Amino acid sequence: MGILLLILGLVLGYGITAIDTQSNGIFKQERIGRFGKPFFIYKLRTIHVRTQKISIWGQLLRKTKLDELPQLMNIVKGEMTFVGPRPDITGYADQLEGTVRIILQLKPGITGLASLKYRNEEQLLAQQKCPQDYNDAVIWPDKVRINNWYALNRNFFMDVLIVFYTIFPFPFDVDAFVKKNDK
């Protein structure tokens, strides 16, 4: 029964998205996966095709992270998992060097510790004078630090905790968690 409700919700969300954005409703983008292998990630489209602006429905999807639901297809295909480092576009994860390349040994996830810390990344970047520079100098290196720590310390309990805080967005201090659990 739960699976049927999930499928019905996906179909309904897809239908509303297709009408709202006047598109096929699905956005796909190449990302870097396990072992640095490129793959296509799927999301519900949030930007209207004609206006190139985020629709009200799209804003709701992004705020609730429901635009990420089509990534269940990536999980079924074996390209992703529920918890792990988020897959990045070309030019980031595929450029990792040294010991932090351990991050590429993991399947990327729909959510992860860095995702929890940067849950409001879009808003944070919108406040910056030069969002790309801020991402490259501050956010990206911090995500690498967090994802590297996760790769070295991950366990079932931690994954359950990450899923819990993803579904129920209570405040969660990722840096304090990492410091407390550092081996």
Can you walk me through this structure?
The chain has 183 residues and is mainly α. The protein folds into 2 domains: 79 residues, no CATH class; 102 residues, no CATH class. 49% of the residues lie in helices and 11% in strands. It is built from 8 helices and 4 strands. The strands form 2 sheets. A two-stranded antiparallel ribbon has the order 1-2. Strands 3-4 form a two-stranded parallel ribbon. Strand 1 and strand 2 form a beta hairpin. The longest helix has 23 residues.
What is the oligomeric state here? single chain
Q: How many domains in all?
A: 2
**Shape category:** globular
SS strand fraction: 5-15%
Percent range for helical residues? 40-55%
Low-confidence stretches: none
What is the succession of H and E elements? HEEHHEEHHHHH
Helix count, DSSP H or I runs of 4 or more residues: 8
Instruction: Describe the main β-sheet briefly.
Output: 2 strands, antiparallel
Termini separation comes to 42 Å
Derived from helix and strand composition plus strand pairing, the structural class reads mainly alpha
Q: Output the radius of gyration.
A: 17 Å
Strands of the biggest beta sheet: in what spatial order?
1-2
The residue-averaged pLDDT reads: 91
Number of strands: 4
